[in-house]
């Protein structure tokens, strides 16, 4: 087994493999742990909360729901490492706090990494993969790539080669008094707009699709969008334009000229700016994997994955970290997974390690429940099962006919569980209501049983107990 | 659609989107709406609620009711609209025969999507009418 990468995805996978007794090597081209959090985000804090004080003690599993940034561990002293670093000026940690917490997890969790070892190319030999690295070759039956979505990516717009990428953004003071064109209206575009508003004279954000303000309203990332969107709404010098860009030209004065067609409001748009940045996103640094037949999604930026995060086309090639969003899950009611952030992929990584252990023929320890223990156990999961609360409608708590229980990807459960198995999720509908859903395998069919929402999200009452009893 | 080919160019070739100009296609071609499935994997499951509307970008799939094969779906075909529009559970399984990629319009956004692009709605309606005609012809 080889794990490539020492960001949160690589560290979490390596930790989980170690605790299962799976021998593996971890290699990383970086010199220190932390992955993208060693340098990004540029101006702002992270996007997800960590609450140092919460209804549960930081050393407990139930606390994980209140801390979306720490890696997960069996040992209480390795839990909530981000909370311990926070200076409490904000509910979301700063980049240096996150970096320190990851380094602390790697050190105290005993995650051994060969730093400064760059994966350069890949070879297939019989049923094995050979990773050619700057320190020699690694031969392995399975490999977990935890590479992040960290390679700058530009959309195919004529003239965009002249425009620096977000990753090349110069010092803020260089934008003083200038007009700035930002291609892209997603998180990184608004991060720059928010960070540069105190400096720039005018900011134009341009991309074809409108900002989903209704979705943003209840997302932690809204803090990045607030000020630029407010400024745009009041005509204060920031513009958020819905337009498909035809081309970008350099001007004789050294600036940029944009030619576009409006989408939400049709019509030609032409504008000039002193500076420009392409905040068009990132892609996974896949090196030669596509030449070996790796299938991708999202304009080739992310690997296409099975529900257990294995390549859909390259058996034995797994992905961890935020590339796990390549396994989209069911997306019921349009609700996506949390696999693109630490909060979600930390749980995926633990399941992935167990999956790999099973495929290597290792015997896993399963918790087994007696008949009378099942309903109280499931009610407790509905109260504080952080896997199913964080990965809504994506990860499920399964109980099998022999009483054994585990967390599984819901999509996998629905297609592969045995007769009489049940699974429990927490889900969300288009109206934002949160409610439990049970799934029961009945012959060839899956019986989907949604339960009612509760005003305080308390699913411990008689109605839920009765619904769970009825499953058995 | 080959890996990495422009999503806009792919959508432009489909009958469903034939009336849209480039700016409109770019607005629809959100790379984050692309979903991928391995050969043999189920794309949609009978009895499940909360699904969406899907257009096949690449690959082939089969509509099944138990072991009975109802229909084959190919590049440019779409599915999921009936359960989404009626807000009812899916009535059949859809399974990928090859690696399949689809463009997804989530269920809660389908109405707004169709109202934003009436020409797409008209083409969808024509396809539904043809399907109904085929069923009626078969029954008579």
How is this structure best described in words?
The complex is a heterodimer of chains A (472) and B (140). A six-stranded mixed beta sheet of chain A has the order 12-11-10-9-8-13. A six-stranded antiparallel beta sheet of chain A has the order 18-20-19-21-22-23. A four-stranded parallel beta sheet of chain A has the order 2-1-6-17, covered by helices on one side. Chain A is 23% helix and 24% strand. The radius of gyration of chain A is 24 Å and the shape is globular. Chain A folds into three domains: 2-150 and 283-359, FAD/NAD(P)-binding domain, CATH 3.50.50.60; 160-280, 3-Layer(bba) Sandwich (FAD/NAD(P)-binding domain), CATH 3.50.50.60; 370-471, no CATH class. With 472 residues, chain A is α/β, with parallel strands linked by helices. With 140 residues, chain B is of the alpha+beta class. Chain B has one domain: Jelly Rolls (Sandwich). Helix content of chain B is 36%, strand content 26%. Chain B has helices at 7-12, 22-28, 81-86, 107-116, 118-139; strands at residues 34-37, 42-44, 53-58, 61-65, 68-73, 78-79, 93-96, 100-105. The longest helix of chain B has 22 residues, at 118-139. The mean pLDDT of chain B is 92. At the A-B interface, strand 10, strand 15 and strand 23 of A face helix 2, strand 1 and helix 4 of B.
Annotated CATH homologous superfamily of chain B = Jelly Rolls
Q: Write the H/E string of chain B, N to C.
A: HHEEEEEEHEEHH
Across the major sheet of chain A, the strand order is: 12-11-10-9-8-13
State the end-to-end distance of chain B.
Answer: 39 Å
Number of helices of chain B: 5
Distance between the termini of chain A: 40 Å
